């Protein structure tokens, strides 16, 4: 129920509705004058007797999975929050409330989970396990599908085809970054949390980036913050270049480690690269209609080099590269199983937003100009797959990088090539962080920083952490970027312990 009769400050004291709304507009530049007035109107008309099924908030009945109880919430929010609560167009944001069985009516503190990405939805719980189980021991968990993903007005290959021009699509897509994700979260918090009180947030990867945006512009909504593998660079302009300079250095190290683990794969990859380069068009057709080229093959490092069991999964993928020779004299061919598995390795067909917005998450008032592609050109002597294969050198993989040629070679991305180029040149991205606010942060923050993180560089993370007052860091090489997935209960328990006094400061 959206009980919004009184506001609670972070210290727990009560203050008036007008002061509460005013505090939002002062402390949070995302809240415009119109947004503040809209919030006041909402508060004055939605008391304890208000229905969960109001047009802007619809709630389902409780349902069950093993050891968990869940219910769904759908919120109708402005596409552009800066135009006020009543502005159009509107989109829908979906959030799933999760509690341990028997705790449906208990007064539990709320914890919002912010998924990694960008452009990925929360996983649907199928049982009580891992970090979800640990969180539900003491919290009411909220799994919010970030706008454009999952059940939150999903931007899919098919839904985005409704736009008749690349300009119209990019004008829509510009509203799907961390700033508006935080606006959505605040919209939900004041309607979902009793008395519009603050909640705890847990941000994984890009979700951690969103958490730092939250700390910058809406700290009054936060009780405490947990971050796992997701402290972003916060410098002005576009920090993508620094991210990819560090990223290429790290992916070289990870490629070398991979081949030490599986030295037999050096020749397999070399043979595969040579085969692809000798085909008409420089590659072979993929089942979807795209093309597999040597540079496309290198992108397997995106998933294979940065997560728990990634090395093993990549090795087992290469075990099934070639079709067997069933008929003497039959030409050598890459197996359908390998080609199909290669495409399934990524999620561009189901989550194209990841490719379209990936570089823009680093931009404030400046364009990315295809940063990953530019930085790669500076180190191409090391990443030239064809040259390496012909010279008998290990073929290096690439990491979390989006290149312009992907919109030619990946079938699902082809319709969005023009939009991708417009986004890469866009300069007027609004701010995502406020360094001054972070310097004076009062919200308790604990972050897991993974020493060998392929996706979020430790040096850049440490630079940002030095700007967030009071942050506590757990720096570890026990986990890779997927620590929350691999042993989430331990990770969450450790971070909570750092904030609740169980882990000493020194």
TrEMBL record:
One of its GO terms (biological process) is proteolysis. GO terms for molecular function: peptidase activity. InterPro entries: AB_hydrolase_1 (IPR000073), AB_hydrolase_fold (IPR029058), Peptidase_S33 (IPR002410), Serine_prot/Carboxylest_S33 (IPR051601). Keywords: Hydrolase. Residues 110-230 form the AB hydrolase-1 domain. Belongs to the peptidase S33 family. This is AB hydrolase-1 domain-containing protein. It comes from Clitoria ternatea (Butterfly pea).
């Amino acid at each position: 129920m959206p009980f919004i009769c009184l506001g609670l400050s972070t210290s727990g004291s009560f203050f008036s509705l007008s002061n509460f709304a005013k505090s939002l507009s002062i402390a949070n530049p995302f809240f415009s004058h119109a947004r503040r007035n809209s919030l006041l109107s909402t508060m004055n008309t939605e008391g304890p007797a208000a229905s969960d099924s109001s047009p802007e908030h619809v709630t389902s009945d409780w349902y069950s999975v093993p050891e968990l109880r869940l219910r769904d919430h759908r919120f109708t929010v402005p596409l552009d929050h800066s135009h006020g609560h009543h502005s159009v167009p509107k989109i829908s944001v979906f959030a799933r409330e999760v509690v341990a069985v028997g705790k449906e009516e208990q007064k539990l503190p709320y914890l919002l989970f912010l998924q990694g990405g960008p452009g990925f939805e929360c996983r649907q719980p199928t049982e009580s396990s891992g970090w979800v189980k640990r969180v539900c021991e003491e919290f009411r968990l909220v799994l919010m599908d970030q706008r454009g993903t999952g059940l939150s007005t999903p931007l899919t290959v098919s839904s985005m085809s409704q736009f008749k021009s690349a300009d119209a699509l990019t004008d829509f897509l510009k509203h799907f970054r961390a700033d508006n994700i935080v606006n959505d979260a605040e919209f939900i918090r004041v309607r979902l949390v009793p008395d519009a009180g603050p909640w705890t947030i847990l941000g994984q990867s890009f979700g951690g980036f969103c958490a730092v945006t939250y700390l910058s512009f809406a700290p009054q909504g936060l009780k405490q913050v947990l971050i796992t593998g997701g402290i972003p660079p916060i410098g002005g302009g576009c920090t993508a270049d620094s991210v990819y300079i560090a990223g290429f250095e790290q992916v070289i190290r990870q490629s070398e480690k991979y081949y030490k683990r599986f030295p037999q794969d050096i020749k397999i990859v070399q043979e595969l690269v040579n085969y692809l380069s000798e085909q008409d068009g420089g590659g072979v057709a993929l089942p979807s209609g795209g093309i597999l080229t040597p540079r496309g093959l290198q992108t397997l490092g995106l998933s294979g080099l940065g997560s728990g069991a990634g090395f093993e999964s990549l090795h087992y993928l290469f075990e099934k590269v070639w079709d067997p020779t069933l008929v003497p004299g039959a030409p050598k061919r890459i197996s359908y199983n390998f080609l199909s598995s290669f495409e399934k390795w990524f999620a561009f067909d189901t989550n194209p937003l990841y490719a379209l917005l990936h570089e823009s998450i680093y931009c404030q008032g400046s364009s990315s100009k295809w940063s990953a592609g530019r930085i790669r050109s500076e180190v191409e002597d090391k990443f030239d797959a064809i040259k390496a294969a012909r010279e008998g050198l290990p073929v290096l993989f690439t990491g979390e990088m989006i290149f312009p040629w992907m919109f030619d070679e990946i079938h699902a991305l082809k319709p969005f090539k023009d939009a991708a180029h417009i986004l890469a040149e866009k300069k007027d991205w609004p701010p995502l962080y406020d360094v001054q606010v972070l310097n004076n942060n009062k919200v308790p923050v604990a972050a897991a920083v993974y020493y060998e993180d392929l996706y979020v560089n430790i040096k850049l993370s440490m630079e940002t952490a030095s700007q967030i007052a009071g942050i506590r860091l757990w720096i570890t090489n026990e986990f890779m970027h997927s620590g929350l997935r691999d042993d989430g209960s331990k990770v969450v328990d450790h971070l909570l312990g750092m904030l609740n006094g169980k882990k000493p400061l020194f």
